[in-house]
């Protein structure tokens, strides 16, 4: 309920590490997020401070992320922000983790070829082989509002 959901846009900084755990598949990688801004004095784009997040993915998202992501890929990650503080060897450490809900390539910065994951929930080959539906409305289709006028039957002509 009281979770902090964030959307981070950045680059994959480390190769995803995939593990099969007792609770199911898990993957993690580091995400580098660097804001850019226009520096009016220099008249050029300037990079701001880079923030690093550890992104955690579970179940099917972990499988797909491990198979799809490479270092340097521009991605968008939506997930629950978890900030942790820890003491290691007398030093205070703070880390920011994202428990990913969804991960995708940033299409504003490149192209991607999407492939559906194989379903392991009993889908049949016949279901997978079905063609993509035609979403275009053919002319004269009753669903086409412009075709209504052409579908109305003409009034019969008077016979003399």
UniProtKB/TrEMBL annotation:
Keywords: DNA-binding. InterPro entries: NA-bd_OB-fold (IPR012340), Primosome_PriB/ssb (IPR000424), ssDNA-bd (IPR011344). SUPFAM superfamilies: Nucleic acid-binding proteins. GO terms for molecular function: DNA binding. Residues 117-160 are annotated as: Disordered. The keyword DNA-binding applies. HAMAP family: SSB. Homotetramer. This is Single-stranded DNA-binding protein. It comes from Streptomyces cylindrosporus.
């Amino acid at each position: 309920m009281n979770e902090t959901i964030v959307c981070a846009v950045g680059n994959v900084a480390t190769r995803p590490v995939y593990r099969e755990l007792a609770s199911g598949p898990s993957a993690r990688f580091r995400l580098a997020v660097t804001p850019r801004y226009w520096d009016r004095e220099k008249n050029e784009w300037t990079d701001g401070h880079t923030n690093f997040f550890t992104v955690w993915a579970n179940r099917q998202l972990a499988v797909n992320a491990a198979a799809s992501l490479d270092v340097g890929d521009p991605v968008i990650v939506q997930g629950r922000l978890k900030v942790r503080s820890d003491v290691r060897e007398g030093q205070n450490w703070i880390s920011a983790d994202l428990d990913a809900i969804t991960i995708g390539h940033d299409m504003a910065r490149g192209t991607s070829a999407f492939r559906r994951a194989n379903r392991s929930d009993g889908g049949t080959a016949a279901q997978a082989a079905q063609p993509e539906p035609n979403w275009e409305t053919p002319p004269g289709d009753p669903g086409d509002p412009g075709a209504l006028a052409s579908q109305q039957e003409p009034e019969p002509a008077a016979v003399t």
